[in-house]
From TrEMBL:
<keyword id="KW-0378">Hydrolase</keyword>
<dbReference type="InterPro" id="IPR029052">
    <property type="entry name" value="Metallo-depent_PP-like"/>
</dbReference>
<feature type="domain" description="Calcineurin-like phosphoesterase">
    <location>
        <begin position="5"/>
        <end position="203"/>
    </location>
</feature>
<dbReference type="GO" id="GO:0004527">
    <property type="term" value="F:exonuclease activity"/>
</dbReference>
<dbReference type="InterPro" id="IPR014576">
    <property type="entry name" value="Pesterase_YhaO"/>
</dbReference>
<keyword id="KW-0269">Exonuclease</keyword>
<dbReference type="InterPro" id="IPR004843">
    <property type="entry name" value="Calcineurin-like_PHP"/>
</dbReference>
<dbReference type="InterPro" id="IPR050535">
    <property type="entry name" value="DNA_Repair-Maintenance_Comp"/>
</dbReference>
<dbReference type="Pfam" id="PF00149">
    <property type="entry name" value="Metallophos"/>
</dbReference>
<dbReference type="InterPro" id="IPR041796">
    <property type="entry name" value="Mre11_N"/>
</dbReference>
<protein>
    <submittedName>
        <fullName>DNA repair exonuclease</fullName>
    </submittedName>
</protein>
<keyword id="KW-0540">Nuclease</keyword>
Length: 411
């Protein structure tokens, strides 16, 4: 009978993320941001030791770029050495970001670490108490794009032990990411793997439970579109049962917060209210980068200007670089919720009706931004526009237009 095994499944460490779009942050905060991936990794190592796992899987994109920083390489190695001191093995594959590193000479690891070298599927045994109990299957990217349907290349030929497949790639219907080593869920069905450890998609997701097919997501979010807690899974496997449990590791949480029902009557009250909220968000176990969505009551219609919101943002952040558990408000998106009967306006025969109709007919607003979104410089510094962001921009634009049109009508 196979013994119970416990392992950690992690992916997409992106240890040397440069955080290019965030250089404007105060020095001490930017320093925390740049170190966040390394801190999350160190926590992962501590977790592995505390939880006495048998081994750790790192499924691709350990590094963000080809020119890895010395600091990230050293940190990675030190962690692996710590694992070795506790007799914990590690299995590493490289992904589309750190492709071609399988045979890099300067990346030598302690002998508890097994690296999948090439795009050929390889397997490594795992021994517990002198007995072979598992086989870990995987491959590494040799070039940036692996377009092959890699799932089909696996050959699970050791049903006498636990068989674990590792795969850095994306589901074929996925539109948010470049499609690498694409697969469809059906592709897994013909295999007899006991667990599929995926990497590449940074959002945590359990695609299937029998067997488990899991994206753990990255261990530290890198921008506002990688929100919430980030971490890894601890998997406990016995012959008849597999249990998985998520563990958060992040140092910084990226998050969007919406304030809908402000009780403030003026800017001063609003400022006080936001300061109170910010304090209530402060948390001793992590730091925050927040995008704030502020829906102000109608009383603010004629009294608030963008320049005042800019000032408010500055004020809110002013002392944060002296805090250990800082809460940094990255942006404030704001609008005044004034009540107008949209349906009635849209139905009217006036120009405003035509405008609202045109706005509703425009289902794909990204095309207006295509030139901007595809610009190389912009791409480097601005996060990709999500549907949510686009909807919001559209709603804000509508408010501006309607407001101006009504104002003209009044005068
Ligand atoms: Mn990645």
């Amino acid at each position: 009978m196979k013994p119970t095994i416990r392992f950690i499944h992690a992916a997409d460490l992106h240890l040397d993320s440069p955080y290019v779009g965030m250089q404007h942050l105060p020095e001490s905060i930017f320093k925390d941001v740049k170190e966040s991936t390394l801190l999350a990794y160190n926590r992962l190592i501590e977790l592995a030791i505390e939880e006495k796992v048998d081994f750790v899987l790192f499924v691709g994109d350990l590094f963000d770029q080809q020119s890895t920083s010395i600091k990230s390489v050293i940190t990675l190695k030190r962690g692996l050495e710590k694992l070795k001191e506790h007799s914990i093995s590690a299995y590493i594959s490289y992904g589309n970001h750190d492709f071609g590193m399988g045979d890099k000479v300067d990346l030598t690891f302690p002998d508890n670490t097994y690296v999948f070298q090439s795009e050929e599927i390889q397997r490594y045994p795992f021994h517990k108490n002198g007995e072979e109990v598992a086989q870990i299957y995987g491959f590494s990217y040799e070039k940036r794009a692996v377009k092959k349907k890699m799932v089909r290349e696996f050959n699970f030929d050791r049903p006498d032990v636990y068989q674990i497949g590792t795969l850095h790639g994306s589901i074929q219907s996925n539109t948010d990411h470049d499609v690498y080593a694409p697969f469809q869920l059906e592709d897994f069905e013909k295999h007899e793997a006991d667990y599929w450890a995926l990497g590449h998609i940074h959002k945590r997701e359990i695609l299937s439970e029998n067997p488990y097919i899991i994206y753990p997501g990255n261990i530290q979010g890198r921008h506002i579109n990688e929100p919430g807690e980030k971490g890894c899974y601890i998997v406990e496997m016995s012959p008849h049962q597999t249990e998985v449990e998520f563990h958060a590791l992040q140092e910084i949480i990226f998050e969007q917060r919406t304030i809908n029902n402000s009780e403030a009557n003026n800017l001063e009250e609003l400022t006080e209210e936001l300061f109170r909220m910010k304090e209530s968000w402060r948390n001793s176990s992590h730091k925050y980068i927040i995008r704030l969505h502020l829906h102000l009551p109608e009383t603010f219609t004629s009294t608030v200007e963008q320049s005042q919101i800019d000032e408010l943002l500055e004020l809110l952040n002013e002392q944060e670089d002296t805090e250990r558990d800082w809460v940094w408000i990255q942006t404030i998106y704001w609008s005044v919720d004034w009540n107008y009967d949209r349906d009635e306006m849209k139905a009217s025969s006036q120009f405003i009706g035509e405008v609202l109709q045109a706005i509703d007919d425009d289902e794909d607003p990204i095309r207006h931004l295509e030139m901007l979104a595809n610009n190389r410089v912009v791409k480097k510094h601005v996060e990709p526009f999500t549907k949510e962001t686009l909807d919001e921009m559209k709603a804000e634009a509508e408010q501006m237009i309607v407001k101006e049109l009504i104002k003209d009508g009044e005068s």
